[in-house]
Amino acid sequence: MFFESEGLDHQGYCFRPPSEAYSILFQATLGCSHNKCTFCNAFKYKRFAIKDMGIWEKDMAFAEKYCKRQKRLFVMDGDALIMPMRKWEWLLGNIRQRLPWVERVAVYGNAKGVALKSDEELARLRGMGLSLIYYGIESGHPDVLKDIRKGADPEKLVEQARRLKKAGFALSVTVILGLAGREKEKSYGHAVETGRVLSAVDPDYVGALSLMLAEDAPIYERVRSGELVLPEGVDFVQELGLMFAHTQLSNGWFMANHASNYLTIKAHLPEDREPTMRRIAAALNGRIALRDEWMRAL
Question: I need a surface site. Which of 153, 182, 216, 296 has the fewest CB within 10 A?
């Protein structure tokens, strides 16, 4: 997803979660400090950098004057959580003082960026008003994580996510259906192990997306060469059913309502488990139509 504005200084495409569609988009950084995930082309043409504080000040002044209807603010780009604490202290302090109507501040984060913050620093960020972290897990299977060059194994992903939870952040985790390809054994392992990791993290929100190819994403070459065979529509739904069945949340949402998915589900766990499993079974049995290919989008 992206949004461009003539007011705020937004350089290049600005990606944000769907739930941040009506938020102030404050581009504090450019690109992604990792920028190696093979499925992602979002930041391939940006070198990671923290933007000049003069630009921050101009953007803050613009938001202060023109963004009084927006109750949420999203800090971009790809993993702005990695910024040093002195930058976060300036930003969150100015949001609190100059944008007092903002009720939620959110950011993308990854395991590397979280690991660079101490428990005390995470608690301070939470206390200063950062409240929601979008955290990409993608897969719980170690081989899949290596293949996509995620830069973390399942244990690290779980450990750093738990630290965020302990610090009091709301946690929204992203996973991607289809990353292991169509081969049944690999797809099964990806689904089951991802469910296991999600259960260990116990996030507030799970967002399941389905893999869609961009020609400039590195994974495209694996598909073009035949090394990786993509699942078909029903394969994605089978994988979704397995992942969902192996995910236990104490009080969280499991959603597959992104435009990339063939089947939409929105379940609050644990109480929506059985009706959601019935919906997935109905789709697999042909009683619920899957989304047409032309309707899918990133």
Answer: 216
